[in-house]
Amino acid sequence: MSGVEQRKEIRFPAHVLPEEYRTFSILLSQGKTATVKTVDASRNGFGFTAHLSSDNFILGSKIVLYPFGESRPVYGIIVYAQ
């Protein structure tokens, strides 16, 4: 990730997170799926890298994260993409 970090909260690097939060699958609102690698996490979100272009991450759209597998999804909204 390059550029200016927008989150002003405490962030935890991926290496201190439990294994299930380091690499996991996501589902985007337009039906695309990807495996992502976590860069960092905070109380309000995740920073991650994906092999999809940033055009696939539409600001304000819904995202489903599967750190615990598809049986326990985590729902969110995309607030920043680069």
What keywords describe this structure?
82 residues, mainly beta, six-stranded antiparallel beta sheet, 6 strands, globular
Overview of this structure, please?
The protein has 82 residues and is mainly beta. It has no helices and 6 strands. Strands 1, 2, 3, 4, 5 and 6 form a 6-stranded antiparallel β-sheet that branches. The termini are close together. The mean pLDDT is 88.
Mind sketching the topology for me?
Blueprint: E1 11-13, E2 23-28, E3 33-42, E4 45-49, E5 62-66, E6 74-77
Antiparallel strand pairs: 1-3, 2-3, 2-5, 3-4, 5-6
Structural class: mainly beta
- The parts where pLDDT drops under 50 for at least 5 residues are none
The ordered string of helix (H) and strand (E) elements is EEEEEE
The major beta sheet can be summarized as: 6 strands, antiparallel
Helix content: under 10%
Shape: globular
**Radius of gyration computed on alpha carbons:** 12 Å
**Number of helices, where a helix is a run of at least 4 consecutive DSSP H or I residues:** 0
Number of E strands: 6
Strand content: 35-45%
Mean pLDDT: 88
Q: Could you give the distance between the termini?
A: 8 Å
Give a brief description:
This protein has 82 residues and is mostly beta strands.
